[in-house]
Specification:
The chain is α/β, with parallel strands linked by helices. Helices cover 29% and strands 29% of the residues. The chain contains 7 helices and 19 strands. α3 crosses α4, α4 runs parallel beside α5 and α6 packs parallel to α7. The longest helix has 27 residues.
Length: 312
């Protein structure tokens, strides 16, 4: 029997990542997996006003902070999945007038933070008998793959078929079907279907296989999100839900019938469903509330014997 812990959509939340580092020990899992969308969405400028004081404007409030108060605010920003950056007034003014410069700074901070995460995983977990897996999602820049590939400790199986133990093969795809936000990793449904088929063809024993695909299968209850009027507005304040998952993923699961499929992408649709013999799981995400949602799954040779959705 193999026990794995899977979570996804941490979106840069420092506190959720640090909880993830304890998951193997807490849940007695031999495999811990952090699924797609591991990076944050923006930087928060902290502008120097003199004498070690910095002006901070975020989360609906404006403050001038120094010393321990400044450090606590930076920690709160990181825990919410954002990147605090201290800067001088001149640099702040230049960033406001130069979108390319701002984009470059965001990219550099994002990659540096991810490298810190990988290093922390190695230092905290390197002496444990534990397999640690990170995969990107549709929101993650391509450079994420390069950072993950630098590590000899963290396994980064994006776009490949790998094994989680001596019996279970796993295919990993961090891409999604098209979204209103034109994120870095999106395929039309036919291309996504082709990519899944290519990797599925490399699996020797589908009865014991795992699909690790960021986007959930269409119309399964694992893919219900607030219906949008446009990219910035939800219909009736988010009260109307709509299935937004992938038909290609659904069709592939029904065709190949792996033992288990793991998904994320739609934070609101935490749950478990069956498609034929396949147990499909989306553990959901509440990273912005600094809560780590996940799932513990026990698998034997060819079936899921137990699963528990976790919150911590």
């Amino acid at each position: 029997m193999t026990r794995l812990f899977f979570c996804t959509d941490l979106h840069g939340s420092e506190v959720c990542f640090r909880k993830f580092l304890h998951a193997g020990r807490v849940y007695e899992a031999g495999v811990v997996m952090m699924g797609g969308d591991c990076t944050g969405k923006m930087i928060i400028p902290l502008v120097h006003t003199g004498n070690g004081t910095y002006h901070c404007d975020w989360s609906g409030g404006t403050q001038d902070l120094s010393g321990e108060d400044l450090q606590e605010e930076e920690s709160a920003i990181r825990n919410n999945g954002l990147y605090p950056v201290r800067m001088e007034p001149g640099e702040f003014d230049r960033l406001q007038s130069d979108p390319d410069r701002l984009k470059e700074l965001f990219h550099d901070v994002m990659m540096r933070t991810l490298r810190d995460w990988v290093g922390l995983a190695e230092s905290r977990l390197g002496d444990e008998d534990l397999k640690v897996i990170f995969t990107p999602g549709n929101d993650d820049d391509y450079a994420v793959d390069d950072v993950l590939d630098e590590s000899d400790f963290v396994e980064a199986p994006e776009g490949r078929v790998t094994t989680i133990d001596d019996r279970h093969e796993m295919l990993s795809i961090g891409w999604s079907n098209p979204t209103p936000w034109d994120t870095p990793r999106e395929y039309p449904e036919d291309e996504l279907a082709g990519r899944i088929a290519e990797l599925a063809g490399q699996i020797g024993d589908m009865d014991s296989a795992i699909f690790n695909i960021h986007v959930p299968p269409y119309d399964t209850g694992l893919d219900n999100a607030p219906e949008l009027v446009d990219a910035t507005r939800t219909r009736r304040g988010g009260a109307i839900m709509k299935a937004v998952g992938s038909t290609a993923v659904r069709d592939a699961i029904l065709e190949h019938q792996p033992m288990l499929s793991l998904h994320g992408h739609i934070h609101e649709s935490r749950g478990v469903q069956r498609l034929g013999r396949t147990t499909c799981i989306n553990p959901g995400s509440t990273y912005s509330e600094m809560i780590l949602q996940g799932v513990v799954v026990d698998v034997d040779a060819s079936k899921v014997t137990r699963y528990v959705l976790t919150t911590g």
